[in-house]
C-alpha cells in the first residue's frame, strides 16, 4: 500500500479520496451492460470456472449468470487465491469495470463477495470507489478493502482529531461545513449535496494552504532577506534616459520600472518575475535597471555594482550584447559578452574585468554562472526567458557576492495568472501588459500542405517588397534523426523554390557549431539573406524587424505556447506581418483547436489560458517539478475563482498578522504545526 499508492500514514489514507461514488444499492442486469457501462455491479449465480491459456495468457475465467445474461469474469493474476473462494452454484455480488472482449461482456479482476440480498441495500447508498493498483488487488487489497480501512479509521477518530483549521470568519463567510464533516462526507456522503459541500471545503483548504506556504516564503523574504540598497538614480540612468533612449517608454514599462526601483531601494533582495508578451519591450527595462545598479556603489570601497544578464542561447546572448552595446555606445559603460565559445585572450580579459570590477555589465549564456566567473561586486542579475533555467542555476548566482544580487527573471512565455500565482507565488510579479505603439497585429492563417506552392509564391511577393521571411521546421527533439532529416529535406525544397542568386537563404539549427549559427544569423540580420530556414532555436528573443513573414511547417506538431513564441519573431517592425501555419491534410481535433486559437488571437495571455485548459497545468513549461500543483481535488483550471479567493484571503491574513499570532488565526497556525510532524496521527498509529 505504501509504495503503490503513496499511503504511509493514516492521514494519507484519509486523504486518499474516492475517484467517484457509486450507488451500490443498484445492481445492473447483465443483459443491459453495454459499451458505455463503466464501473458496475451485477449479481448472479456462478456457473463454473476454468483455467484457460498458458504462460502469459494463462487466466482464470468464471461465468456468472443473472437470469438476463452471462458475463465472463477474468483474472490474470492471483489465480490460485481467487480459485479457492470460487464455488460453482454460489450467488455472488460482483463489482468492476465493464469491458468487452471478442464482443463478449466481461470484467477483469472484479471485486466479488458472496451475495446476500441485504448486501444490495447497504446503508450508505453512495459507496466510494477508490483508485487502486492491479498489484494491490492481486494481493487482496482492493478498492473495497480501502473503503473498509477508511471507514474503520473514521470510527476511531472523533471531531476533535480533525480540528478546524480555517479562521472562523472564512468558514462563516463561505459557509463551509466543518473539517470533520468534510472528511466523513468526502468518503461516505449521506447525499450528493453533502458530497459537494465536502469537495468544496477540501478544495479550498488545498488552495488556501498552498497559497499560505508560498505567502510565507514571500513574506519571510520581504522581512528577512537582506539585499543591497540601491537608493540612487544617477548619471548612468539619467544620462541614458535623457539622451539615448530611442523611444518613449510605454506606461506598462514605466510601471514595472517603478516596481523594480522600489524593490532595489528597500534594503531587501529583489526576486521579481517579469512577464511580458513577445515584443513587449522587456530588454529596455532590464537595461535601465542595470544602469541603476551601476549608479550605486558599495560604501566600503566605492566600487560600482556590476550586473549580469543571462540568456538561454548563444544567439540570444549575442543579440542582447549587440543591441546593448549599440544603445550604450556613447555611455561610459563597459559591456562584455561571455559564452561557451568565448575563447583565449578575449575570454581571459573578460574574466579579469569582472574580477577587477571594470566590466559593468556582463552578458552571456549559463557560462556566466560558472565558478570561474568571479565578480568584484555583483549587485543585479537578469535572467532572460527563465523557463529555460532551473532553480539551481538561479541559486548559483547567490553565491557571487556577500549578499545575493537582486534578481529579475524575465519570461515571454505568458503564464496564466492562476498558474503564476501557484507556481511562482513566492516571487514578486510584474507584467508588461501593453505593446509599444504602432505595432500591427500579425495576420495568422492556416493552410494545408497541398497549398504549399501558393504559400511560397506569397513568400516571393513579400520578398519582392523588400521583406524577409522565416521558414520554421519542427525539431522537437534536438537529437531526433528524423526531425533533422525533415529539416534537410525542407531546406533542399526551399532552395529549389528560391534559387540563387535571386534569393539567398540562411539556415540555423541546433546541430551547427555556434560560429556557423552566428554567421548565418548575422547574414539574415543584415538582410544579406532573405530567407531564414530554421528550427525552434529561433524561438526565443531573436529580433529582426524587417522579417515580416513566417511560415511554420507541420504546425500541428507544435504546442500553443511554442507557436506563439515562434510567431513573436515577426510583427516587430512597422510592416504588416503574416504567419502561415502549414499542416498535413489530417489534423487531430486538439491540433485544430490550437490552430484556430492561433488564427483568432495575438494575445499571449489568452493563448496561455487556452493552453492551460487544453493541456492541463502538468505540462506547462517550468512548472512540472514545482510540486505545488499536485492538489488532490482542486484544479487550478476549474477552480481558478476559488484560487483567487484563497490568495486574497492569505494576503489579507499575512499582511495583518505575518506570524499568525492573532486568536482568529490560531486554527491555521495549529494546523501548520500539526502538518509538520507531531500529529494526532502518530497517537493512533
Ligand atoms: P521582448 O519583451 O520580447 O524581449 P524586446 O525587449 O526585444 O521585447 O523589444 C522588442 C522591440 O520593441 C525592440 O526592437 C525594442 O527596441 C522595441 N521597443 C521596446 N520598447 C519600446 C517602446 N516603448 N517603444 C517603441 N519600441 C520599443
Ligand atoms: Mg526578449
Describe the fold and architecture.
The chain is an alpha/beta fold and 685 residues long. It has three domains: 2-156, OB fold (Dihydrolipoamide Acetyltransferase, E2P) (Beta Barrel); 235-432, Rossmann fold, CATH 3.40.50; 443-615, Rossmann fold (3-Layer(aba) Sandwich). The chain is 39% helix and 18% strand. The protein is built from 24 helices and 21 strands. Strands 11-12-10-13-14-9-15 form a seven-stranded parallel beta sheet, sandwiched between helices. It has a six-stranded parallel beta sheet with strand order 16-21-20-17-19-18, with helices on both faces. Strand 18, helix 18 (514-525) and strand 19 (531-534) form a beta-alpha-beta unit. Helix 7 (179-187) crosses helix 8 (192-224), helix 8 crosses helix 22 (640-656) and helix 9 (235-243) runs antiparallel to helix 11 (282-295). It is globular. 41% of the residues are buried. Magnesium ion binds next to helix 11.
Give me some keywords for this one.
685 residues; alpha/beta; Rossmann fold; 3 domains; 21 strands; 39% helix; binds magnesium ion
Summarize the topology.
Layout: H1 2-5, H2 10-14, E1 20-23, E2 39-52, E3 59-65, E4 70-75, H3 79-85, E5 91-101, E6 104-108, E7 111-114, E8 126-129, H4 134-138, H5 143-156, H6 168-173, H7 179-187, H8 192-224, H9 235-243, H10 251-264, E9 271-276, H11 282-295, E10 306-310, H12 314-327, E11 335-338, H13 344-356, E12 361-364, E13 378-384, H14 391-398, E14 406-411, H15 417-423, E15 428-432, E16 443-448, H16 452-464, E17 468-472, H17 481-497, E18 505-508, H18 514-525, E19 531-534, E20 547-552, H19 560-567, E21 578-583, H20 589-600, H21 604-615, H22 640-656, H23 666-675, H24 680-684
Parallel strand pairs: 4-6, 9-14, 9-15, 10-12, 10-13, 11-12, 13-14, 16-21, 17-19, 17-20, 18-19, 20-21
Antiparallel strand pairs: 1-8, 2-3, 2-5, 3-4, 5-6, 5-7
Helix pairs in contact: 7-8, 8-22, 9-11, 10-11, 20-21
Amino acid at each position: 500500500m505504501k509504495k503503490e499508492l503513496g499511503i504511509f500514514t493514516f492521514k494519507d489514507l484519509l486523504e486518499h479520496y474516492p475517484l467517484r461514488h457509486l450507488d451500490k444499492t443498484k445492481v445492473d442486469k447483465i443483459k443491459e451492460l453495454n459499451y458505455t457501462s463503466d464501473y458496475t455491479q451485477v449479481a448472479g449465480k456462478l456457473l463454473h470456472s476454468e483455467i484457460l491459456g498458458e504462460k502469459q495468457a494463462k487466466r482464470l475465467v468464471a461465468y456468472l449468470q443473472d437470469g438476463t445474461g452471462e458475463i465472463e469474469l477474468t483474472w490474470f493474476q492471483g489465480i490460485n487465491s481467487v480459485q479457492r473462494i470460487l464455488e460453482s452454484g454460489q450467488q455472488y455480488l460482483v463489482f468492476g469495470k465493464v469491458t468487452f472482449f471478442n464482443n463478449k461482456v466481461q470484467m477483469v479482476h472484479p471485486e466479488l463477495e458472496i451475495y446476500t440480498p441485504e448486501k444490495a441495500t447497504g446503508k450508505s447508498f453512495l459507496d466510494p470507489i477508490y483508485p487502486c493498483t492491479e498489484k494491490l488487488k492481486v494481493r487482496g487489497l482492493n478498492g473495497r478493502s480501502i473503503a473498509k480501512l477508511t471507514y474503520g479509521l473514521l470510527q476511531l477518530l472523533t471531531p476533535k482529531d480533525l480540528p478546524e483549521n480555517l479562521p472562523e470568519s472564512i468558514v462563516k463567510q463561505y459557509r463551509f461545513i466543518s473539517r470533520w464533516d468534510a472528511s466523513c462526507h468526502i468518503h461516505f456522503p449521506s447525499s450528493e449535496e453533502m458530497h459537494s459541500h465536502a469537495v468544496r471545503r477540501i478544495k479550498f483548504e488545498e488552495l488556501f494552504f498552498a497559497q499560505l506556504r508560498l505567502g510565507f516564503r514571500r513574506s519571510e523574504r520581504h522581512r528577512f532577506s537582506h539585499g543591497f540598497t540601491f537608493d540612487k538614480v544617477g548619471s548612468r540612468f539619467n544620462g541614458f534616459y535623457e539622451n539615448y533612449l530611442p523611444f518613449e517608454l510605454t506606461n506598462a514599462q514605466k510601471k514595472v520600472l517603478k516596481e523594480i526601483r522600489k524593490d532595489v531601494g528597500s534594503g531587501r533582495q529583489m526576486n521579481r518575475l517579469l512577464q511580458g508578451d513577445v515584443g513587449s519591450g522587456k530588454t529596455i527595462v532590464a537595461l535601465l535597471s542595470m544602469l541603476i545598479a551601476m549608479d550605486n556603489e558599495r560604501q566600503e570601497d566605492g566600487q560600482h555594482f556590476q550586473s549580469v544578464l543571462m540568456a538561454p542561447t548563444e544567439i540570444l546572448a549575442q543579440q542582447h550584447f549587440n543591441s546593448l552595446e549599440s544603445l550604450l555606445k556613447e555611455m561610459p559603460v563597459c559591456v562584455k559578452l561571455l559564452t561557451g565559445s568565448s575563447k583565449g585572450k578575449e575570454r581571459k580579459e573578460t574574466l579579469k574585468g569582472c574580477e577587477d570590477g571594470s566590466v559593468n555589465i556582463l552578458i552571456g549564456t549559463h557560462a556566466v554562472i560558472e565558478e570561474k566567473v568571479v565578480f568584484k561586486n555583483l549587485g543585479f542579475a537578469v535572467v532572460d526567458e527563465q523557463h529555460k533555467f532551473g532553480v539551481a542555476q538561479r541559486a548559483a548566482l547567490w553565491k557571487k557576492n556577500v549578499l545575493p544580487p537582486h534578481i529579475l527573471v524575465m519570461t515571454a512565455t505568458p503564464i496564466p495568472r492562476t498558474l503564476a500565482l501557484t507556481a511562482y507565488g513566492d516571487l514578486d510579479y510584474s507584467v508588461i501588459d501593453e505593446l509599444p505603439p504602432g505595432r500591427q497585429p500579425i495576420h495568422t492563417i492556416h493552410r494545408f500542405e497541398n497549398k504549399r506552392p501558393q504559400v511560397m509564391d506569397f513568400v516571393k511577393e513579400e520578398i519582392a517588397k523588400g521583406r524577409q521571411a522565416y521558414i520554421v521546421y519542427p525539431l522537437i527533439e534536438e537529437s531526433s534523426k528524423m526531425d533533422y532529416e525533415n529539416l534537410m529535406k525542407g531546406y533542399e525544397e526551399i532552395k529549389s523554390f528560391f534559387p540563387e542568386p535571386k534569393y539567398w537563404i540562411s539556415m540555423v539549427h541546433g546541430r551547427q557549431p555556434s560560429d556557423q549559427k552566428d554567421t548565418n544569423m548575422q547574414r539574415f540580420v543584415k538582410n544579406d539573406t532573405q530567407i531564414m530556414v530554421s528550427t525552434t532555436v529561433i524561438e526565443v528573443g531573436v529580433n529582426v524587424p524587417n522579417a515580416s513573414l513566417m511560415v511554420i511547417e507541420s504546425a500541428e506538431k507544435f504546442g500553443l505556447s511554442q507557436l506563439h513564441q515562434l510567431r513573436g519573431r515577426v510583427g516587430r517592425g512597422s510592416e504588416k506581418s503574416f504567419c502561415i501555419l502549414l499542416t498535413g491534410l489530417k489534423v487531430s481535433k486538439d491540433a485544430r483547436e490550437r490552430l484556430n486559437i492561433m488564427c483568432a488571437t495575438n494575445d499571449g495571455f489568452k493563448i496561455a489560458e487556452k493552453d492551460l485548459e487544453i493541456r492541463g497545468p502538468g505540462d506547462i513549461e517550468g512548472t512540472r517539478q514545482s510540486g505545488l500543483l499536485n492538489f488532490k481535488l482542486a484544479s487550478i483550471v476549474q477552480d481558478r475563482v476559488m484560487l483567487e479567493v484563497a490568495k486574497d484571503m492569505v494576503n489579507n491574513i499575512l499582511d495583518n498578522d505575518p506570524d499568525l499570532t492573532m486568536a482568529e488565526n490560531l486554527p491555521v497556525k495549529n494546523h501548520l504545526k500539526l502538518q509538520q510532524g507531531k500529529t494526532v496521527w502518530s497517537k493512533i498509529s
